[in-house]
Amino acid sequence: MKNRFLFVCLFVTSICLAQITIKGKVYQVNEPLEGVAVYLNNTMLGATTNTDGEFSIPVKEGQYDLIISYLGFKKINYALNTTEYNKPLIFNLEETYDLLDEITIKKVIYDEDWQYNLTAFKQDFIGITELSEKCILLNPHVLYFDFNTNKNILTAYAKKPLQLKHKGLGYLITYELESFVRNKNTVTYLGYSRYQELKGGKRKQKKWKKNRLKAFNGSVIHFYKAVLNNSFTEDGFIVNQFKRVLNPERPTDTVIKKAKELVRLSSTKINFYTDIKRPKSALDSAMVVLKKIQLPKFIDYLYKSKLSKDDIITFKNEAFYLSFKDNLSIVYTKEKEELRYITRNAFSKKREPLPQTSSLIPLEKNIFLDRNGILINPLATFYEGYWSYEKFGNSLPLDYITDSNF
Q1: Predicted local distance difference test score (pLDDT) of residue 227
Q2: Same domain? 103 vs 185
Q3: Residue ranges of the chain with pLDDT lower than 70?
Q4: Is 273 in the same domain as 305?
């Protein structure tokens, strides 16, 4: 069965050409609040309120998630459309009593179990790529973990924003974790991030510039932007279309469940290595069924190769939409897989690196894609393959611009 990963980072940002300045004030019961973080989600654009509770952020025209965050108060996620902005914004924060913080987090024991869960969290959130190794979680002790052994579900909570220092990309990142759940082979995380440039000399700046371009090339954002520009073939992407169907050779989940129950209730000594060619009993039939569990649940059928822009997106009502049937297999030919990707699973066999291949699985129809290659609803898709391997440690702010002016 293929491992499936769903990585979600909430963001809504659209960047155009003209620039304006967004101004506003933040209050608490009519008293100005100093030190409130006000920023555009997943970008380097933000400010901190002054003694009068005022903030000012120069931005390019577009649509944004404006985040107003202050410890001990309810976070505000304000949908900002600069075309509708005509006067200073006013926000009133409400205090919050975090039951999790007061009761649960205080009971955290930083023992071997906590350390084990932390390692799993960092692998599933930051990643195991070469670049992610340079992304350091500075304050891991703000994390609390809950592991359900029966359902194999790991949940993570944070009582304060995560602070990450990415020495490979040159960013200090504040990440406000809203939720993190690893359920068997699926990982979902939601949150808000703010990027700040690290200081460094010419040598570091050159290294960061190179690494950022490497992180961008072949990424999800690179692909979407290249599709909009109709340059994805030139940029090294080959897009194929496939259909996913149930594997007729693999028993259904219901049949497998019944077989397991029959074996469990059997008083007969069972040799699981016996080769049963012709079942002579219900128990033999159950054993045959259980030997087929390892077969993939689904089979992918490729039925169209080298798609064009019109096969992937449509333009209607002054907006772009992902509007293809079934699923996309996307091959990025200008970079090979990392060795860590090839050997990421315990039973993986070493082989020669191939071009990076990812699958794009839509969860909705007609998914809105803004003019800058950003999904307005990132929950509408999930990714398999190489894009699922590249996690937060390979992420860039949405206002990152390459030398080629993507």
Answers
A1: 96
A2: yes
A3: 1-18, 97-106, 272, 403-406
A4: no
Tally of structural domains, the chain: 4
Cα–Cα distance for residue pair 134/370, rounded to 1 Å: 31
Helix or strand run (H / E) with residue 91: strand 89-92
Do 106 and 170 fall within a single domain? yes
What is the chain's length?
A: 406
Predicted local distance difference test score (pLDDT) of residue 257: 92
Strands (E), 170-283: 171-183, 186-197, 237-246
Task: Encode 296-323 in three state secondary structure.
Answer: CCEEEEEEECCCCHHHHEEEECCEEEEC
Residue 394 lies in a domain: no
Q: Which residues contact 144 (CB under 8 A, 6 or more apart)?
A: 100, 104, 105, 108, 156, 157, 158, 159
Q: In the prediction, which pLDDT does 117 show?
A: 96
Question: Is the same domain home to 235 and 364?
Answer: yes
Domain boundary, last residue among 92, 127, 142? 92
277, 141: one domain = no
The helix (run of H) or strand (run of E) holding residue 217 is none
Query: 377-404 in b/e burial notation, b at 16+ Cβ within 10 A?
Result: ebebbbbbbbbbbbbbbbbbbbbbeeee
Task: Give the model's pLDDT for residue 221.
Answer: 92
Q: Say what the pLDDT of residue 30 is.
A: 86
Residue 395 lies in a domain: no
